[in-house]
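Q: I'm teaching a short session on how sequence maps to structure, and I want students to see two examples side by side rather than one. Could you give me a first protein with its sequence written out and its structure tokens following it? Keep the formatting plain so it prints cleanly on a handout.
A: Of course. Example one:
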Amino acid sequence: TRYDFFSRVVPPDTYQAQAMVDIVKAMRWNFVSTVASEGNYGESGVDAFIQKSREDGGVCISQSVKIPREPKPGEFGKVIRRLRENPNARVVIIFANEDDIRRLLQAAKKANQTGHFIWVGSDSWGSKISPVLHQEEMAEGAVTILPKRQSIRGFDRYFISRTLENNRRNIWFAEFWENNFACKLSRHALKKGSGLKKCTNQERIGKDSNYEQEGKVQFVIDAVYSMAHALHNMHRELCPGKVGLCSRMDPINGTLLLKHIRMLNFAGIAGNPVLFNGNGDAPGRYEIYQYQIKNRTAEYKIIGHWTDQLYLNILAMHWPGGGRKIPYSICSHPCQAGERKKIVKGIPCCWHCERCDGYQYQADTYSCKMCRFDLRPNENHTACRPIPIVKLEWSSPWAVIPVLISVAGIMATLFVVVTFIRYNDTPIVKASGRELSYVLLTGIFMCYATTFLMISAPDVGICSLRRIFLGLGMSISYAALLTKTNRIYRIFEQGSMSVSAPRFISPASQLVITFSLTSVQLLGVCIWFGVDPSQAIIDYEDQRMANPDMARGMLKCDISDLSLICLLGYSMLLMVTCTVYAIKTRGVPEAFNEAKPIGFTMYTTCIIWLAFIPIFFGTSQSTEKMYIQTTTLTISVSLSASVSLGMLYMPKVYVILRHPEQNVPKRTRSLKAVVTAATMSNKFNPKTSLRPNGEAKSELCESLETQGDGLLLSPA
């Protein structure tokens, strides 16, 4: 805005800064330092670099150091110490003059930093020899930049032919001649001991002195031609067909001339197009050099170019020590798979790597997220994978033992049933109450069969059957036993008050009572089905370990621990009630009926279930919870059935098969006679009740036996 008539055929430093940013990013360097000579060139160049790096992102500045115009002794050593504060920032961006570059390299060499710093120099360094002279190893690997240029041969021919005679128009040429040939044109200017000689005018440029074309000659020629083309175009517009200036161009309108300059587009002396953008800047064209040492010979080698975008031959690059591996200049190393970046406040290129632990996975570069409840992270926590589904397998030891017990129990139950059916009309079978016996054996069979439902793979059908049969088998068993103990209790309780038989002791009545008690269990299950239909679920919480690799989903039925207690609660109630009646009838003569075996059965069953409860609920936090609880439950149910089967039916089967002589009917009398005898005996001889084996009551029971099949088992 201050110099709106300013145009240039060389690219501005903003393009140079952009090219340097592109080089840094191509090398994957993201943490660099900058050094600038105090003044417009150095400071504006570094500012442009920092601005471009912020706009593009991905590059951060570790240190930004300025070299004073008149540095004090030790100033460059101080600069090197600042650059060493962060050893990860090895790359140094330099916008400095030749002398500052040379002294900076000397200070780095003195600090024994050879090979540590990677220098990226602006066009003030370019391909010059003076900054690196005698410190080639310190500068090895340096990447520098220069506006793309070409040597103009026509200029060489012209300039070499210049002499004092043919170039008098250039008032500075005589001074150049003296400096170039180390001579003096005037004899009076010679001083003794100066080593200078008098110029002879026979000296020739390039023959008697070294000559190398100045690199900016191309741009000077293009600048002159730009002005010439602009004036020519303006003349054609304002003075068509006229030679020389017309009145419209006298004086020149600067604004109109600027317009024609900015509209130019012609081939320059080197063949490159010459044109200007709206700010009067030429397009950026740079050549990229690297200072390399090969076979002890140092040279600048072109490794790429930049024209709006970077082209870099990375394979042609060599680094300090002759290596080809690109050195690091990064604040933080890349995070491993499964790690997120936690950015250091204010420095976006620096971060700490934090592992996505537990059930987290790496959602993106900067965040970890929890896997869905049915998923767990993979090995490197970059994604989620399904949690394996497990169930109780038939081959598992947790299943084999309950299955073997159940198979043995089912075989024993079937053996008892077959025996009872075969000897159905024998006194022992009849006296044991055939109807209730078959009902009880059915309940025992169902208890054993429950094991197979508990181990089978859960689905809607299996889960429904579990709800029905898990409590049903036990309900049938304990309902039958409760009916028996209640009947015995009522008979002997009635005998102490009256000689008349109690009500509801016939087989039909006993079956009705048993099925009525069992129907309560079925009614509860039906209500449960209505409120909460049965289904198989996958429980991911029971085995959700701290280590995700150990996590498992448990395929099971939707029966909670509380639901299970409610399901078995009614059976427990029947069992406790039956135990109470068993205690009440403990005084029944030992040889009478099944009161004592039923009592022992209930005591043992209570012990089994008292042991079951702490095992079942004490393992609720165990990793093997499902296996332990299923095995404990099935074995407890099977043991309960085994106790009933063993104590109530095995003695009878033993007598039927091994001692058939004991399986004979007893002498009976009429009910009226027995009741009368028992009453008179109790009335006139109170000690009658103390007779061995309770003979008075024995007769009563024997008579009742004839009144209803299976009411009581008479003494053998």
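Q: Perfect. Now a second example for contrast.
A: Example two:
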Amino acid sequence: MEKSSSNETQTLTSKKELLDCTEGEDCQENGLLVKNPKSTLQLVEDGNKVHPSQGDKGEAGQISNGYSVVQSPVPCNGIGDGEDVQCTAPAATTTTTTTTSTTCGVEAQPQLLELEERETWSKKMDFLLSVIGYAVDLGNVWRFPYICYQNGGGAFLIPYTIMAIFGGIPLFYMELALGQYHRNGCISIWRKICPIFKGIGFTICVIAFYIASYYNTIMAWALYYLISSFTSELPWTSCKNAWNTVNCTNYFTNASITWTPHSISPAEEFYTRHILQVQRSKGLDDLGGISWQLTLCLLLIFTIVYFSIWKGVKTSGKVVWVTATFPYIILFILLIRGATLPGAWRGVVFYLKPDWQKLLATEVWVDAAAQIFFSLGPGFGVLLAFASYNKFHNNCYQDALVTSTVNCMTSFVSGFVIFTVLGYMAEMRNEEVSEVAKDTGPSLLFITYAEAIANMPASTFFAIIFFLMLLTLGLDSTFAGLEGVITAVLDEFPHVWGKRREWFVLGLIIACFLGSLTTLTFGGAYVVKLFEEYATGPAVLTVVFLESIAVAWFYGINQFCRDMKEMLGFTPGWYWRLCWVAISPIFLLFIICSFMSSPPDLRLFDYNYPYWTTIVGYCIGTSSVICIPIYMAYRLIITPGTFKEVSDVFYLFKFIFDGMYFPLHYPAIQKKRWEILHRYFRQKRWSVNDASIFARCWMYGSTL
């Protein structure tokens, strides 16, 4: 045993002797035992985070959170899975806080931990534009306006604002804070929060793959439109093309033509029969061949994506200066143009006219909650990844408020851009706005809005900038979604991919392209609709629900708030705590139950989805969420010990939860904690990692 002025260090060599821990001692199996005179446990996990003592927190916190540890690949005595956790005491100086030694095998062999600085954003604005570009996507342009007028117009803004304040923004803030403090992607971050929930990270990666498999196909449609726009006369203004039918009716060129229920606009036939070619598919059971035009468009999009993200946030942070700001310039131009069109006021009135009776309907509140959630985008791993590249003391509280406000205002302004044009079309057709605004989703952009643009003066110019805007909106979200996966995998397997980022990104892009092939078929639009409704919605809601529970209840809301005080210099108030502990989880559970109780009745164009597609949809959604219970079972199986011992762990958690409401200095509670910890440590039935996790639970719970 070696003694120093501030602590004493004892090397454990379990193959030679078995040490029994008495009450008041801190033991670690086959590792390094460090006991501080003040009996304060301090955890170092993966070297990325140190919980300093009160006296050292100011200095050590600034150093340890900026680095990652390069650990030895050799496990200690055969125990270890790359997730080893070390328990140390606060060192006397900052230098010893960042340097640790471990003992592997029979003999003590000190090993110096190499600290490596994590990549950070070049500028604060790079981060803000990346988050805004991720949050503001195609859904802000087409989904919010439709949801708004469908659910009471201006009255819908009341539930939308309430859901944003008590649900969306707190979750958005929580993810930014978690990512910035722990500085890890969505997989490895759970080692530091609650390892048994690590399956959440794998679920997020699967969801991101599904999104990349269909979301980029929508951008391929926009690119096809953009290429087709470089003509003096836009191809969706005429009924004289090879793809047109006898029902094609061009009411703009001939005022004497009457619009009938069987009439089809040239813009709709261009979209369905030329771009998608759905007439060559019978449905999901017969998708038909692959469109080579869309395949080339998608290949070009993935090429742009690859060269934008292959080097990390240093390059993608520069690209977003164009892709995140350009849509706002175009939205402003289109807003001015739409406001000057005849009949624009009819669309604005229809958009904002309040229907107060709608507020009594449950589905309006469900739609408001779902819209704000999917608009801000927590649960996709992106906010964790982006925030992990921030400086440790960056004010993520201010960032959360700014970016979420910009996102919500963008959705609101996009409604004016869309509905001024819908009012113009209603004026031209001599119909009600409600009849013109029946299209939803991508059809609202590719049929209704494209048709209106085609009949404006300087239609070619407005068509080009409009579809360029759609491309930039989509590219930002794709950059972000894939960066979430890349950061997660590189942080989880640094020894494999740490120096091979370019090759991993290339493999990921190829996998996403191959996964998109079914959406490039003649029936690909049906596949896109199925994935959009089932592959992401309920799965992401489940992810964020479990994430909020794990952080607020397992990790501990008080510990989370202490982390934020260390990072930001102030503690979140009661409003944020209440939202994280109760309101936000209830908000998410409310949406999940509403979705499960009434699954969507899918219909696209003239195709009604058969019943078996609902089963397929649930299977797709379950295929990602299943990673969570599988990993939980895996952790319990690989951890030595009987079921009784495992159940004691949950008993320990129960006492931690009880501590939130009852004084933790009760002798019975402390005694039970020590009994559980001592049994495991003394009998050496658990790995070093698990023992340290339980010690952390004891430490956090005892100081709540």
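Q: What should students look for in example two?
A: Point them to this: Residues 1-115, 654-666, 684-692, 696-704 have pLDDT under 50 and may be disordered. Also worth mentioning: The first helix runs from residue 57 to 64.
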